[in-house]
Amino acid sequence: MGSQINDPQEFVVLVTGFLPFRPQWPVNPSWEIAKGLPSHLPPLRAKDPDAREKVHTPPVRILVHPEPLRVNYKLVREVVPSFWDTYQGCKVDVVIHIGMTGPRTYYQIERRAHRRGYRNADVDSELPEEGTDGRPDDPDWIWHDLPDEIISDLDIDDVHKRWQAYSSKDMDLRISEDPGRFLCDWIYYCSLSHLLRSNRPKKACFFHVPCDASDESVLQGRELAINLVRAIAESEMSVKQKEPESNGVAE
C-alpha cells in the first residue's frame, strides 16, 4: 500500500490529464476533470448501501499531476517513470491516466496498451523516434523484449462492476480493449512497461472521456472519475482481504 510519512495506511492514487491537441477541441476535458478532483476520496453517499459489497478501505489520497501533459510521444515517455517513484512524499499505489476520445457519449476504461503501431503524429508533428513499428530486433530499443500488448494487473472486470454500481444508471460505462494507438495508448503502455521492467504490479488504468468540455460534462466526468477511484480502491482492498494470513512472517 502506498504511504506518506504522516499516514502510512493511505491508499494513494495519482491522476494525469492532457493538453488540447486538435483545433476543433480547444479544451481537453481530461485535464478539466483531473484538476478539480478532491485531495481525498470523499465519504460515500450511497443510495443503497446494502446493494453493494462492503469492503473496508483506508483513506484514499488523490494526487493530481500539477500540469496537463503535452500530447508528445517523447515527452510523455520521459516523464512517466517519475510518476511511479515517490511522488510528493507518497508512494503511489495506482495511476489513472485520463484522456479524451472523439464525439462519443460513453466512457471507457482500458484493459490493455500496445507497444507498436503508432501512425498518427503528435501535436509537434512527430512520430515515436523508433518509427511506427518499433525496433523489436534492436536490443538497444527501450521496449526491446517487451510484449506487444500489456494488460493491467487491476481486475478491470471487477473495477467496472463496482464503477457501474456507484454511478448513475443512465451512464454508459464500458470496458475497452483498444485505447487507439495514439497518446492515450502510448502513455498507458509507458506506465505498464515501466512497471513490468521494474518487476512491480502493473496497477495502472486508462480512463477515456468524451470530448465535450462543457461545464456540465466536466462535472459529470469528474463524478465518474471519483467513482472510478473508489471502485479501484475497493477492488484492490477486496483482493488484499482475500489473501491468506502471512502468519506474522515478514516478507
From TrEMBL:
<keyword id="KW-0963">Cytoplasm</keyword>
<feature type="region of interest" description="Disordered">
    <location>
        <begin position="120"/>
        <end position="139"/>
    </location>
</feature>
<dbReference type="GO" id="GO:0005829">
    <property type="term" value="C:cytosol"/>
</dbReference>
<dbReference type="Pfam" id="PF01470">
    <property type="entry name" value="Peptidase_C15"/>
</dbReference>
<dbReference type="InterPro" id="IPR036440">
    <property type="entry name" value="Peptidase_C15-like_sf"/>
</dbReference>
<dbReference type="GO" id="GO:0016920">
    <property type="term" value="F:pyroglutamyl-peptidase activity"/>
</dbReference>
<dbReference type="InterPro" id="IPR016125">
    <property type="entry name" value="Peptidase_C15-like"/>
</dbReference>
<comment type="similarity">
    <text>Belongs to the peptidase C15 family.</text>
</comment>
<dbReference type="GO" id="GO:0006508">
    <property type="term" value="P:proteolysis"/>
</dbReference>
<dbReference type="InterPro" id="IPR000816">
    <property type="entry name" value="Peptidase_C15"/>
</dbReference>
<keyword id="KW-0788">Thiol protease</keyword>
<keyword id="KW-0645">Protease</keyword>
<protein>
    <recommendedName>
        <fullName>Pyroglutamyl peptidase type I</fullName>
    </recommendedName>
</protein>
<keyword id="KW-0378">Hydrolase</keyword>
